[in-house]
Amino acid sequence: MISRMQSWLRDWKEGWIGPALLLLLTTGWLLIVGTIFVHSAADGPEGGFPGPYSSSHMKKILVGLAGMLVFSFIPSKQFEKYSSAFFWGTIGLLGLLLLWKWAQGGVVRWIRIGGFGLQPSELAKISTILLIAQLLRNGERLRQWKSLLKVLAMAALPFLMIAAQPDLGTALILAPTVAAMFWVGGIETRKFIALGVSVLLLVGSCGWPLLTNYQQDRIKTYLGIGEVALESAGGYQVAQSIIAIGSGGPTGRGLHLGSHHDLGYLPEDHNDFIFSVIGEEWGLVGTISVLLGFLVLVLTMLGVAWSCRDPFGRLVAVGLATQIGIQAIINQAVTVGLLPVTGMPLPLISFGGTSIVVTLMGIGIVISFARKPVEVIHPDGLQRGTSSVIHRPIRAQVQPDQL
Amino acid sequence: MQRVRILFIATLLILLAAGIGSRLVVLQGLEWREHALRASSMHRSIRYFPAPRGRILDSRGIVLACDVPVVRASFLLSELEPVRWVARRLAKKFHGASSKFPWDEMALWNSLQGARSSLRHQFGLVEEMANHPWLRKLDQKIGQEIARAVRLRPEDYPGVVVTDEGPDFTIYIDPNLLFAGEIGVRRMERELDLERGTLWDKVEQAYALVQDPERDIHEREWIFRHQRHPLQDEVPAQLVVKISTDPESWPGIHLEEVRNRAHPGGSFLGQLLGHTGLPSQAVLDRWEQREEPVIDRLVLRDIRVFEVLQEFSHHSADQVGRSGLESVLEQRLRGQPGAEVRILDHLRRSVGDPLHVAQARAGDDVKLSVDFELSRWCQDLLVSRNIAFGAVVILDIDDGSAIGWTSLPAQGMEVYRDRDLYEQRSQSKSGWFHDRVSAWAIDPGSTFKTVVALAALQAGVVTADEKIICNGILDPSQPNRNRCNNHPRGIEMNISTALARSCNVFFYTMGQRLGVEGIVSCGEELGLWRSSGCGIASESAGIRPVTNPTGTGIGRGFTTTPLQMARIALTIACRGQAPGIRIIDGIIGESTAPDIDQKHFETVIDGMVSAVRDRGGTAFKPSYGLTPYDVAVKTGTAKRAQSQLNDAWLIGFAPVIQPKVAFAISVQQVALGGGEACAPILSEILNRLEQQRGWDLSR
Prior knowledge:
The complex is a heterodimer of chains A (403) and B (699).
Chain A: H1 2-13, H2 19-43, H3 52-73, H4 76-104, E1 111-113, E2 116-118, H5 120-136, H6 145-163, H7 168-185, H8 189-210, H9 213-223, H10 235-248, H11 259-262, H12 274-307, H13 311-335, H14 354-371, E3 385-386, E4 393-394
Antiparallel strand pairs in A: 1-2, 3-4
Helix pairs in contact in A: 2-3, 2-12, 2-14, 3-14, 4-5, 4-6, 5-6, 5-7, 5-13, 5-14, 6-7, 7-13, 10-12, 12-13, 12-14, 13-14
Chain B: H1 2-30, H2 32-39, E1 43-49, E2 56-57, E3 63-75, H3 77-80, H4 83-94, H5 105-119, E4 132-138, H6 140-152, E5 160-165, E6 168-173, H7 175-178, H8 180-191, H9 200-210, H10 217-225, E7 229-232, H11 237-245, E8 253-262, H12 270-273, E9 276-277, H13 281-289, H14 303-309, E10 320-321, H15 324-328, H16 330-333, E11 338-344, E12 350-358, E13 366-367, H17 372-384, E14 389-396, E15 402-408, H18 419-427, H19 449-459, E16 468-470, E17 491-493, H20 495-501, H21 504-525, H22 549-552, H23 562-573, H24 598-613, E18 632-639, E19 646-654, E20 661-670, H25 674-693
Parallel strand pairs in B: 2-13
Antiparallel strand pairs in B: 1-11, 2-3, 3-7, 3-8, 4-6, 5-6, 9-10, 11-12, 14-15, 14-20, 16-17, 18-19, 19-20
């Protein structure tokens, strides 16, 4: 019993130095920035810290951190084992939402149980990554078109269900994530290009009529096509966001001194446009530090993928890194006017419930892989290896009788 | 190969991040001055307009109630003055930088308020105030830091001037900029010739709400940032021009077009039309329960959202019906608020034309069956005869439309705008707030004998030929009770004659024979003691008799409204098959079809005709002026309790064959009887109807 406890403690202590620590630090930095600016944007300085929004935000962070910690101790085998069940469970929840939508009409994205709201589309983002990683782990399915298309169909299922809610922003983030996983999973370049072109053509020809009017207006506004009222196309928000970010200058107007958002000119300032508030109050210093924070976080996750010898873990890390990275880049690109308004929050920073919890759990999964980079028997009987990222020997967990 | 591909993804993400980084460098490193100026200049904003209310029209299209646009001045605390911002920004600079000035935001705010107090006596009186020294002897370090901050971002420190005075620095404040809001409000007080402080006190009250720690932080934020606080309800045109042409002198003060409700006829039909007002808390709660948003309390930037909500939304300045038809017809009359998107500068002054306008949609117009001219003429007629309390209702026999509707005393919306008058009238027992046609029930007197006659004939307790001798007393053993002074004594009369002469003894007897239940049953069949269903919410049902069948037989001991008695006249004129009463277009009251033989109606009509034509009839006197007309009437005189005055009644219809019009006239608190008081009035009304409508009502 004591020896098991000692083993557990040893296991608990191990692997925190290196990428796992870097992940924790960057995540912590982004969470702190998020809390500060949710307070500044939504609560204001009058009520003191924390206000109602920031305390709600911190509660969700605590739930997410607890999930992250738990996930960081779970061996990658367990994620792989339960990935199918998790995926189909999430699909079931999305199906329930759609049934509810057909019965009641309107936009339905939340399942409310007591005082707790759950957004299944956020869970779907992570469950899809786990399932695709499981399907692509040995690379076989990417060799033939038939099996490849089957995997693609599996990925399309949550995409379509989320898009039908409608929540196109969340659905769209799945596309680059799956593409990155296919790419790293070993798909042939010509197949990848053919697939990409086909999807683009399909979306180009059939997707436009499926978009709602306001979604079409946002794209038209961005492309400068036709006479679209700016108000109905998010043009006002982007214009105000650029003014807010630009007015911050190099060092910002100071925390709680951003009058542009404070006077209510910037809508969704604690959510989709929180980056604009950071820009106004902390200036270029703040925006670049947040941008770098995301870059370090995502590159560290890709580094974990690089060093991970388990194809499942590698694909999961690539999927999660791409998802967080692309979502952050899209959100920031919208706030500086480089992309049309998508309604996508800034991961780890925007005020939000399920999103922040699920993102932290995803980071917890990557930390788990970072702490134990090798857990499988390599086909060639590899016992030792090195990671080019952390430059330290990786201990194999392979038993002699398995060789 | 997989590692190369991971490297490719990493490179791609780095490039994308570099793209955003370079955009940020452009925005915040190269173009930031331009954006900072734009931040303090132009913005896009949605302005909301109250919903125009539909009109109420008479049968000929004359406007009885309509909206009148007025300009209201309101203020936004957050835009009124930059003092709060300046204090907060300076506090950041002072914080820990100087031992001499260890001030926080609140201390600086209080200090600025102190400076305000010392300068206040000049506000609104002196056109251009000189800079005022505020903080002296600032050390070099903090002085230079503040001077640099002001130089770098002058738009963040309006009204702050830092001067280097040798060994130390001094901060001056420009009251014209820093206290521009109060100066504007004080100037408005002077322009409106109001007592000093009248308007500024409203601002102080709003500030007090913001600073109340008991209030929810979000509510305080709302009050400070978004709520438009009313400053002056009606701004005269001259001042509107001044503010519109020189908005810089009136920062934070907004001019809004709102709508007041007006009844062009003044107090005429006032109680029937009712009144409107701004939404009360109960109304706001009801809207919240029904999930109908108060649009100007939401922070919407997207006109598309407004267009979705427009149908269900309200404006906090919407006029809401509170009584009478204005309340009953609320759903039909209420409109939908409008919105427009405008470009505003940093003080929310409109620049150029609106970009987009979602027009406010007016509510439906509602037409009444009432003829304004006829009703107004009736009112003038009553007033000319020194009648202070009374009612006239005239019904068109064809469809039951109420074409004449007069109620005295008349009271309009003026009472809701004069607190003293309201207090005085609400404590009065004269029933100022009630429409005397439909909502003021009194003893019907002998007009009720028509109902008793129909009930008695139908029940078979009397025949058309049965005769009863009236000796002036029902029971000779009780000479002071149940008397009849309406005709000479000892006359033998049947039911028609009894109606014509209004014989009490005859109807005491009928009452005794029928019992209260029998009378009430017939009265209810004829539409008494319940709403007519014509859509008037305030309609009184009256009080039905429960005891004393003898008194009930002559219309004593219970109450009815003139509208109910007019309905009785209508039913008799139609010989039992009467249409429902109409007053509001599209709403038809309950039709009347009592289970009474038509021949009984003819018997009653004979009596009512005799009242006009036969010598001894209660409306026969040539001086009453009714003899030329082909009319059937029943008069009534109800003695008022503890008073020498009567409530005089007359109901009837004309012409007798193929009637066109039924009516009820109630003249209250007069010394005359029913015939004397009401018959001359009816004579003039019939004359007016002949002239106005071309009807032949003469014999």
